[in-house]
Design brief:
This protein is about 80% helix and about 0% strand. With about 55 residues, the chain is mostly helical.
Length: about 55
């Protein structure tokens, strides 16, 4: 089981080492993806108006 945690730790260390090279581009990309997902979800909910009755 400890092998899994070592793998996970090494994986995240590698990601954190790559972050300075990516810079703000990654943050902006995540914000754009978040907005697209948010408005996509709003559109989906508007098209599928199901009323759930909680008795």
């Amino acid at each position: 089981m400890s092998g899994f945690w070592y793998f996970l730790g090494d994986f995240f260390e590698g990601i954190f080492k790559a972050v300075p090279f990516v810079g703000l581009f990654y943050n902006k990309l995540m914000i754009i993806i978040g907005f697209i997902a948010f408005f996509g979800w709003l559109r989906y909910m508007a098209q599928n108006k199901e009323v759930t009755k909680w008795d």
